[in-house]
User: Fold Macrocin-O-methyltransferase (TylF) from Luteitalea pratensis.
Amino acid sequence: MIKAVVRALLRRLDLSLQRRLALGTLNNILTTAPASALAELRVLHEEGEWFQVTLEDRIRQINLSGRETTRADQSLRTYLMEDDAPWKAHHLDAIDMPGMISDEEAQYYEWIGQTYLGRGEVIELGPWLGKSTRHIIRGLRSNPKFSDKQLHVYDDFVWRTSWMNQYVDQADRLPNHADFRALFDRFIGDARPFLNVVRAKISDHDGNESLPPIKWPGSPIEIMYVDCGRTMKVNQDWFDTFSPSFMPGITLVVMQDWRLHRERPRKAYNETLWFTQAHPELELIHEVKHGGVAAFLFKPVP
Assistant:
């Protein structure tokens, strides 16, 4: 009852006054809390970090959502964490297999394939066992402009027990650093004819040192799905390899783990935000509300 009354009173105040009250309360806590309140201060710190993340989300949404941009002859509207984002209306048939993508991410993969223009190739980096791949193929195959194309799929296919074992049944678990390409082929099922699969590495990482680096022949790239790591280095490595083939104002880069820069407590390897901030030519156009996916339009800055 008291909390409801306080909330009702606060809603009557303008935002500037609410902000001053919040800052005054926080300052009072910081200056008067005794050493015995250490546990409470730690809780406050964690809550404050989550508030910061939510505030950054809201600022980004207000600043960018609803913006109109042009992709070749296609009009695109920016949707960031919106309940009325068009992909959320897409009917999704669940795929029963191991994977780490949310339902909204699967909806986005199927929806975005319908925007394929037929101007270039489509690439997926880091499919793991192929759940995202199967949703991507569903979306692309619903588009007649993809009828004579294949999805180019790259992975090092190195099994890493430290995090992969928890997502599969005991029978599918492999020794550390084993080649799991056969497992991928089994789970990918009838999508296999629509894939061009290559085992290669973006950069050296935990058991893939003997593999050849990814090479791209230079064909224009229209859509690129990236799920290969979150560090600045690994993202810069794939960007250096593929971006010379990006088409200005056409190429879409869909980053599976982009929103994981929001994870709290902070993790040192979550550098996706730093990466895109270092590349202003990547214009944020889509961001799911539930999951890690964000998409960018490649628009070189004059």
The mean pLDDT is 95. The beta strands are 68-71, 74-77, 79-80, 121-125, 151-155, 195-199, 221-226, 252-255, 282-287, 294-298. The chain is about 35% helix and 15% strand.
